[in-house]
Design a protein that fits this description.
The chain is an all-alpha fold. It has helices at residues 2-25, 34-61. The chain crosses the membrane at residues 7-28, 40-57.
Length: 62
């Protein structure tokens, strides 16, 4: 469980850094918007929760 949480944290940090750095490096291609960044993080959090719920259900069935 700790390894998965660490991997999720790495994903969050990587996405956060990329969402902040890419618009600085290529402003004509990427645009920085706090609302889109917030939606991206919330979407990732929802995906992580769904994955964990399915993992929990599958381990309970076995």
């Amino acid at each position: 469980m700790k390894i998965r949480l660490r991997n999720y944290l790495i994903c969050y940090v990587t996405i956060g850094i990329m969402a902040y750095i890419l618009p600085v490096l290529w402003p004509t291609v990427f645009s920085f918007n706090w609302s889109s960044l917030k939606r991206m993080f919330i979407g990732l959090l929802v995906a992580i929760v769904v994955i964990e719920v399915f993992e929990y259900i599958s381990t309970k069935r076995k």
